[in-house]
Amino acid sequence: MKQWLLSVGGGGEGCMCRRPESPARTQNLHGAPLEPLMTPMQHGTPRPPSYPSDMEASMMLPKQRASTASSLSSLPYRRSNSSLHKLFESTLSLSGSRPSSGTATPTPSSVLPSSTLSPGSRQNGTGTPSSLPPGVSDEYRTLIQRAFVPHVAVLADDASEALIRGKGLEGGLLQLLRPFGETVPGKITIRDSIGASKSHADFGIRFVDPLGLAARSHATQADTATRNSQEARVSTSSMSERRTGGDVAVIEDLVERHLQYSEYNSHGMAAEYAVQTEQSEPSSSPFYTLYLRRLLSGLPLATHETFAHPVASVIAVSSRNPNPTEEFRRLYSRQREGDLRLPQWVDNDHLRYYVLVHEEETGDIVKANQIYEQMKRHFGLNCHLLRLKSQQCISSDDDSVRLPTSQAVVPQMERNVATWNEQVLSRRRGISGRFMSLSKRWTPFGSSRSSSPAIGSSNSNYDPLQGFYRPDAPEALMRKLADYSFMLRDFKLALSTYDILRTDFNNDKAWRHYAGAAEMSALSALLSTAPQSTKTRAESIDGWIEAASYSYTDRQRSAAPYYALRTLALSLELLRLRSPAAADDAARWASRILEVGLVGPVGHALFTERVSACYAVRTGLGTLHFGSRRRKAAFWAVMAAESWFRLDKALQAEKCVDLALRFYGVRSENAVSQLGGVINAIPFPAMQAFIDELRQEILAMRLRFRGVDGAEEEGGHGSDVGSATLEVEQSVTETETETLDRSPRAHRKSLIGAVAPGDPLGLAGEGGRNDHFE
Amino acid sequence: MSYTFTILSPTDTPLFTHDFGTSRSGGDGIPRFTSTERSLIPFILHSALDIVEEVQWGPSTSAGSAPMYLKHIDKYQNNFISCWITGGNVRFLLLTRPRDEALGLTGGGGGSGQKGSLAGGRAGMAGSGLLYSPTNPATEEAVKNFFVDVYESWLKTIMNPFFNVGNGDVVKSPVFRARVAAAAKKYL
User: Is B119 within 8 Å of A768 when comparing Cβ atoms?
Assistant: First the structure.
């Protein structure tokens, strides 16, 4: 059965926040054939929100989950949770994981949870140069590369929006196109600045709506539309939130919700989380991956970087429109000068791609073809006819995105890069450019260097009052050139351009721009495949990261903690992948995140865990493992366990404690009892005591959670869970006898109380500060 | 300033631990760790052993000779760790927790960044006179003198035929403790 199965689920990288309260809607999109104006409520009999039988067949669910889901849905209490489960699962899995066979209809990516497990499969020689240490996956590198992709703005006329909404896609054309852009099928060949071609199989583009138009216009139309208002409200709210990016608090919120869910459903979903961690890198938590991915999704439109600025825009008009060519012109001029124009610091001369949307049922294909021919005459080659049918798609739908990308967007970017390289960069680099920049600095009036650049000094292109460069200023063009080449993965050119930009921005005292350039210098240096010596790394890259994080936060009046976090998190991941020798630096940046307080409580726990993982990469030399960071890794794992415990996340805490014990060389008690071995204790008695106490409290907490929903769970768990419960009970009685007269949580000594001082944003303190003088 | 001095056996077992405060500049010699810090200290000391091993077996910085005094080797947040290593691979670790004022934390925080230590953590405060700096020559010298005195007492203790250091015997001698305290009072 061929369907337009465009998942809301795995579709958008930018889906920041998915509300779990719309199960029916998801089901509609995944399950029932999409007919115009059909809502699930129009069924004669209300469908129970479990999977219909045909669904299960088409969704290729792994056996284990299918059984879990069905057993869950048989319980009255759990009924709503099976669809909830689905939602959580879909946000967790990597989007764009649909099979990239040429003409296949895309299956919802959310049904392939294995995507997070095999991220390296798309790798084609662009991996980290040095061979990775065993047990370290390239997952995050791929993630980072796929985060910085060209953005394409989508603009559709009212008729085509209505048409697509009629098919059940509330987000209109944007929502229709979005999943296809995540990974453009087939290989995209990119020529870099020196003319060498390289093809990438995992290239993607991101369709965006930079002004949030779809949500807005839809909100106004929602009243008149013939569908229930509830649904409209839900989708509108999720829509508007989806567009925003760069808000750390929202990410925290989302991950927290996932954590909470896994905590209380420890036998269904959490089993899957566990499976995922086993198969991917053992030290990386799926929640951390989720956090990082959400951090990178939906890059905000900003003055100091052009990643989110549209590289091209799609203008779509329905074939129902009486005069499509005129409508195209109208939309174009509205976007160029009229009410749809982007902020003035966005370059407006990007590529326009004209799409004629044609619906098979109602429209006349002959007429559409005529219009299409006419369009081709008017607008040249950048036209496309998109034919939609309610149940199946006519044109091979992958090509709908592939052709524009490979034939229009990428060549356009290549051309731009080449042009700017020639006209702006080389002029700036040559003798005259240097002279000019010198003369700019040393004007005869002697004003530019000493005085503040405040009152728009004529020799700087920076506008300090509004804080941006005009899009046609050489600096802005160079930044764009650098960003384009970064997106096209020509990291060498990008790095050299960012290098020049850094000095320019520094001279202009454009601190946020400076920070951006420093950040991207570091990232492109780390992403490039050229080998680096330890010395260059220590000297330059560390300096850039330092400069970027400092300039993003402390140096300017309006701090941008999101960008600082992005800088540090990405550099730490890339450093960690570089070599074990760089793991120390990676751990240092990770602990910087914690100390500066860029993250909230959830992020704090996750990044603490990450420090441990960074140290764990460093295994040391020889049989005696000199230079390993085993003890440090263990220490940070204990810290992470403590953080999780304070957040009431027993599962995560337990995982961290087990990890710590493994690092300390102590097998956990379960394993020992099975193997009949001896528990070798941690040499420090104080540490042993602390960890024992922590373990017992975590177990007690798990038991408490189990008590909350234990009643419904009898059927659910297998033998292992049962034995775990037994063990929990035993240890809890122990805890209780030990701590008869004191409440365990109030008086237990804590590691986290020692919050790093110097916390400008005040985010790091998570209630631990008060017990300093206990 | 508060200090914790720990002697660790080659198998990472603590043999002797002594907490004390500074006696310099009007200090009363009483340690002022918060309860949080106190429970953190074993972990910090233990994790510092990673760095000790690396410095110990890594390329020598002082040509030819292998120094016993490894100076400041690690830090975690505001805890600085210095190390002395004996011929029998017994590690002396001294953890220093300067007062907040000495770190420049009370006066508006910040301070110019400086390259972090091996272990990482917040970039140390640049050493301008008043601020504590573990690599300050005076600090290094004081810690060294302390270690030398303790080492002498340690040698005398392990020469006791009834004390089996290889077995991980914990030092119980009150004389040794008194000598460590005296050295602490004298130098730190």
Answer: no
